[in-house]
Amino acid sequence: MTDMGLVVVGAAGRMGRMLVKTISETEGCALAGAVEQPGSIAIGEDAGLLAGAGRANVAITADAEAAFAQADGVLDFTAPSASVHFAEIAARSGSVHVVGTTGLAEEHFAKLRAAAKRARIVQSGNMSLGVNLLAALARKVAATLGEDFDIEILEMHHRMKVDAPSGTALLLGEAAAEGRAVALKECAVRSRDGHTGQRRPGDIGFASLRGGTVVGEHSVIFAGPTERIELVHKAEDRALFARGAIRAALWARNQRPGYYTMADVLGIAQL
Predict the structure, then answer these.
(1) Contact 222, 141 (CB under 8 A)
(2) What is the pLDDT of residue 269?
(3) Could you confirm whether 140 is annotated as catalytic?
(4) How confident is the model at residue 148 (pLDDT cuts 50, 70, 90)?
(5) What is the DSSP string of 232-250?
(6) How much is the average pLDDT of 196-221?
(7) 157 in catalytic set
């Protein structure tokens, strides 16, 4: 099979440059396009040179339609509204669409699922193997322990992150809620301030820290009456997210249209 041609959207951003570089280092795929928003100073630049990966002979463009038409897949770590827009283009072009964008709301998920009726979409709040294993473990532990164990999710990221809780924290919260057979939106507590009263049984709490250059740290804490279980993941290099996204694209290339997650890619959906 020929190399999978991949388009990176948001190619001039920090994650976009990492994706371009990682594609150049990965067998089985090649950079087929690079997209930025209209007006970006990066338009016309060679995506490989900008990423520090050497000349790729792929100029950054604002024309997503044309770029997608020449590719097999799209890697997307942009913004919620942009990801929904790119999902429609990918569905029309028949491209695999890997969505690592965080901050998605219910209306964004609904539009992605609608596009997945015609396209292969892999969406995850985190593309790393470790985090998705952590989610599977959180689901299992939550299913095993009763409500005597309180669930709290703590996350820390760099000072530039704009959404909270992180997409990964919400991924872990969803996993824990699934383990308890409840809807996260019914039991999530995203902030505490002032006189909050006692903690309600069954709540899943979130706490977000921001500072420095932290790539990402997440803990799922199960606090019982006389013991505490903590599941922890620390990301040390955002290249792991790029590698996971490329792995997802290569996997989805051979799938039917549908909405998939990294648990499907890794074969751990039932763990």
Answers:
(1) yes
(2) 65
(3) no
(4) very high
(5) EEEE--THHHHHHHHHHHH
(6) 95
(7) yes
CA–CA dist 133, 21 (Å, integer): 26
Closest CA to 167 of 80, 38, 96: 80
Please list the residues that pair with 60 across neighbouring strands: 34
Length of the chain: 271
Entry pTM = 0.83
8 A C-beta contact, residue 147 and residue 222: no
Identify the active-site residue in 97, 111, 157, 233.
157
Rounded Cα gap, residues 126 and 124, in angstroms: 5
Q: Are 33 and 16 in contact (CB under 8 A)?
A: no
Question: How many other CB atoms are there within 10 angstroms of residue 267's CB atom?
Answer: 9
pLDDT digits (tens, 9 = 90+) for 158-180: 999 989 999 899 999 999 999 99
Q: What's the per-residue H, E or C state across 165-192?
A: CCHHHHHHHHHHHHHCCCCHHHHEECCC
